[in-house]
Every structure is written in structure tokens, then in C-alpha cells.
Amino acid sequence: MADRANIGILGASGYTGSELLRLLLRHPRVDIALLTADRRAGQAMRDVFPQFSPYALPRLVSIDDTDWPSAGLDLVFCALPHGTTQTVIETLLDKAPNTKVVDLSADFRLFDPEAYARWYGHAHRAEALQREAVYGLVEVYREKIRGARLVANPGCYTTCAQLPLLPLIRAAAIDLDAIVIDAKSGMTGAGRAAKEAMLFSEVSEGFHAYGVGHHRHMAELDQEFSKAAGREVLPTFTPHLVPMNRGILSTIYVRGTEGRGAEELYAILVDAYADEPFVHVLPFGEMPQTRHVRGSNMTFIGVAKDRVPGRAIVCAALDNLVKGASGQAVQNMNLMLGFPEALGLEQIALFP
Fold first, then answer.
1. Residue 196 pLDDT grade (very low, low, confident, very high; cuts 50, 70, 90)
2. Stretch 50-59: mean pLDDT
3. Rounded to an integer, what distance in angstroms lies between the CA atom of residue 10 and that of residue 62?
4. Distance between CA atoms of 70 and 337, rounded to whole angstroms?
5. What pLDDT is recorded for position 208?
6. Are residues 72 and 32 in contact, defined by beta-carbon separation less than 8 angstroms?
7. Are 7 and 21 contacting, i.e. CB atoms less than 8 angstroms apart?
8. Is 78 an annotated catalytic residue?
């Protein structure tokens, strides 16, 4: 692989697009060669996000005006809305088949076409690519990601639930029919588009559950948990919206199998993540806080006893825009391009 790579960001005017740019500007081995934003085409990035004023960046262009063969891109991040991404990536890879893609939408996360149609309301429009895509949870699929052309970056909620639960599921250490995931996300998880329900006066001074009983991230959890267990797993999952900018906190309730207690579950997680650069298991009994991972690519995990013997409470916290989206995408990029996995992602959390 070349010493440097030319990178494109599709959808650079959104929160995940701008977060990608923030991270990549500090990456020593990439050059930003393309930034797209159809509604902002012709503008400078500083006009959309003034924090980028000091940097020489390409002007925003429309995807339709991009000549993929001549763009000379080694890898493209696709930070476009769900549903629109499939045809864009299909066109891109048809015209520039050697370009690698990390997709941050949900369009390639589900590998069963019937499951995709059931959860998203329409048939997948690029089924051949759906079959090719590799699920981008690095801690599980690291080796497959290294050789992939198309990686489906996991969802933010699902990352914050899978990292604490997958080692326990693989070890057959918890009751698969008694998993409860109570998750809370900051406002940036809803995207940057103007929505009445996202106005400050609508969301401040309170928080609420949404997507109760049928949130689309359930399909992703079902897929990965069932694959890890070797049989169907259907966890209970409820997301909540919290009036903060960044962060996800998942409080997960589990029951150990064969008399396993919280200490044994904790030991499994410590062993699973001993060598992982971006997952940290706190001392037993300590619980993570979103403020302690803000702006970083870290996931903090804590385990505590429940008052009922055999039950445990597992908490995980991450920044939904970094490890939950753009940071994990850069982690995937590093593997796909043969760079050190942690390159450009070393920032420590911003606190206070």
C-alpha cells in the first residue's frame, strides 16, 4: 500500500462528515481530495463549519458532478442518509472498482436481503454489494476488514451494546433470552437536518424513549448476537434521547448461566479486551460516564453486581460521533489501507 492515501468524504456537511474531517486532518498519512455536499455544492467547508477556516480544503461539490475514474481516490467515506447510499456506492464501485469504501449508513449492515426489506421498507438496491460487504466492528472482524473493499460501519447504539455483550455471548456466559439493553444517546445521533422535534425548546430539560419495540438497530443486534451464539437471539432494546450533544450510555441487564456471577462476567470482558486499543474495562464495580470518553475513540465498560444473585449490570459508554461513527470508520480505514490501526485516533477524551 502507498505511503499516503487520497480520501473522499461524501456527505461532508453532516455531523459524521465533519467529524471524519476533524479526525483526518490530524492523520499523518491521508490527503483530503474530495468533499461532497449536494445542497452546499460550491461552498467552502469553512462556510458550513467555521472551525475548518485555517485549513486548505477542496470546495464542496455535488456527487453527480464527481468523475470517479479521474478522482484518484484510494478510499471513500460515505456519510449519506440511509436508503440513498446503495445506488451511490454501486455507481462509484462500477466506475472506480479499485476504490475502497467505508459506509457509515445502515445500508450494508444487514446481510439478509429479506431482513433489510422488512426493517427498511424496500428491497435492497445493490444486493451483490450487500453480499460483499464486511461488517466493520473491528474488535470482531479485524482480519476480514483488512481485505475488504466495502465495509459497513456499525451503528452507534449497536457498537455500545455489542462490545460489552459479544464476549459474554461467545463464552455462553449469559442467558440469551434475558438480555435487556437500556440505551441513551445525545442529540447528534439524530443528524444535522432541521427537524421540529429536535429544536432546543422541544428537547431540553427532559428526555424520552423512542422507537420503542421496533427500532431499526434491533435488526443489527439480532444479526450479530445470533451469529455469535449460533442460534436466534432477540434482545430487549430501548433507545432514549438525552439533551446533550455527544455520547451514548448503555445500561445492560444480564443473567449469568450455570451460576456465573458478576465477577466471572467481568473476568471474561477483561480477558477479551486486554489488548484492544479502544476498549477499556474499568475496575470491578465502577461505572463509565459519557463525559469520560467525549471526543475520543474509546469505549469504557463497567460491571457491577445486581442485588439478585446471578444477575449483573453491565454499562458501556462511547462518543456516538467517534467510536460510534467516524472514529470507528477511520479505524476501519486504517486496516483497509494497511496503516497502523490506531493512527490518527490517539486523542484523549475532552473533560471537562
1. low
2. 97
3. 9
4. 20
5. 87
6. no
7. no
8. no
Give every CB contact of residue 281 below 8 A, 6+ residues apart in sequence.
266, 269, 270, 273, 300, 301, 302, 303
Instruction: Report domain extents, the chain.
Output: 5-153+323-336, 157-320
**Angstrom distance (rounded) from CA 265 to CA 253:** 12
- pTM of the shown model: 0.95
* Catalytic residue of the set 78, 156, 160, 315: 156
| Model confidence band, residue 250 (pLDDT cutoffs 50, 70, 90) | very high
Q: Which CATH superfamily is domain 157-320 in?
A: Dihydrodipicolinate Reductase; domain 2 (3.30.360.10)
CATH superfamily entry for domain 5-153+323-336: NAD(P)-binding Rossmann-like Domain (3.40.50.720)
Q: Position of cell 497502523?
A: 340
Sheet with strand 279-281: strands edge to edge? 208-209, 236-241, 180-185, 248-255, 311-318, 299-305, 279-281
Specify the pLDDT at position 213. Answer: 87
The rounded radius of gyration (Å) of the Cα atoms in the chain is 20
Question: For position 133, what pLDDT does the model report?
Answer: 98
**Which three-class secondary structure state does DSSP give residue 316?**
strand
Residue type for position 14: G
1 vs 297, more confident: 297
Q: What is the DSSP letter of 193?
A: S
Cβ atoms within 10 Å, residue 214: 9
The answer for 282, left when phi > 0, alpha when psi is -120 to 50, beta otherwise, is beta
Q: How confident is the model at residue 185 (pLDDT cuts 50, 70, 90)?
A: very high
Q: Which residue has the cell 462476567?
A: 265
